[in-house]
């Protein structure tokens, strides 16, 4: 940027009016010359750095800079203690009916597991959470190695979409589902009554039994799996001993198993066309 040429007219005028034999006037002129030089220096600085001058005396004090996000009730500048933070998180979990072993770090565990499940690499997720120590990383990563599980099941581990179980397309009727482990609903109702009876003012989940909840959820899922597997087995080996017992010896099950064969054939054909039309497979065929 080109700087404007400074005006030295004031300096020249002072020199012309200076008497040669007046020592006192010499001091005054030198003093004036010094003032002009300082003014020119200020002018040059203002032109090198355009914009209004910053008056620090008029700026408000940065009182907000010391405020903490989680503070105490007595002061915004004192950070909340870990015990209070943990208590607040647990209260919110109870109010929302959430069950999670992590308290203040629940979000970190959720982020790591969800990011990997959605396709992010382990290295990128570790960088996201700044997990540089392997031992701490294992505490937050709860995702399963899907590619290894798919490969162990006999499918292509590098192509997770290749995993497919045809019998999953079979939907058992509700009457057959309720006939297997028929006491699940009764146990769930009894568990809810125990929670209410054992609840305390300071801990509403005093009677909580996570192991029982997990077991009942597993058995509920196994209802469907057992009926699906039994339907496939019945079409191939109807003389198997299991079909001598209820509910597998009922008319409802036999009708369900008879319809399963066609459902499986249709599901296999649909999956074959799906895999054939994948972009990667189309490129390989070309």
TrEMBL record:
GO MF terms, alphabetically ordered: DNA binding
Bias (Basic and acidic residues) ranges: 1-21
Region entry Disordered, spans: 1-57
Domain Ndc10: 59-254
Top-level division of the source organism's lineage: Eukaryota
Regions of compositional bias (Acidic residues) in chain numbering: 25-43
SUPFAM superfamilies, sorted: DNA breaking-rejoining enzymes
Protein name: Ndc10 domain-containing protein
């Amino acid at each position: 940027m080109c700087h404007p040429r400074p005006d030295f007219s004031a300096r020249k005028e002072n020199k012309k009016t200076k008497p040669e034999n007046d020592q006192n006037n010499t001091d005054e002129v030198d003093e004036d010359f010094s003032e002009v030089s300082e003014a020119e220096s200020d002018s040059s600085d203002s032109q090198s750095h355009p914009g209004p001058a910053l008056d620090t005396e008029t700026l408000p004090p940065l009182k907000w800079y010391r405020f903490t996000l989680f503070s105490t009730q007595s002061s915004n500048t004192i950070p909340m203690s870990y015990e209070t933070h943990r208590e607040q998180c647990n209260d919110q979990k109870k109010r929302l009916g959430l069950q999670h072993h992590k308290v203040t770090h629940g979000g970190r565990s959720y982020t790591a597991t969800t990011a990997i499940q959605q396709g992010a690499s382990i290295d990128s997720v570790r960088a996201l959470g700044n997990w540089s120590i392997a031992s701490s990383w294992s505490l937050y990563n709860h995702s399963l190695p899907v590619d290894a599980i798919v490969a162990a099941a006999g499918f292509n581990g590098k192509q997770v979409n290749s995993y497919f179980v045809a019998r999953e397309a079979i939907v058992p009727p509700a009457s057959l589902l309720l006939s297997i482990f028929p006491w699940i609903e009764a146990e769930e109702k009894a568990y809810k009554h125990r929670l209410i009876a054992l609840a305390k003012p300071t801990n509403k989940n005093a009677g909580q039994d996570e192991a029982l909840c997990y077991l009942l959820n597993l058995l509920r899922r196994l209802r469907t799996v057992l009926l699906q597997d039994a339907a496939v087995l019945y079409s191939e080996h109807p003389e198997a001993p299991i079909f001598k017992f209820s509910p597998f010896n009922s008319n409802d099950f036999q009708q369900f198993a008879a319809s399963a064969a066609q459902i499986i054939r249709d599901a296999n054909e649909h999956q074959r066309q799906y895999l054939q039309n994948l972009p990667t497979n189309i490129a390989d065929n070309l």
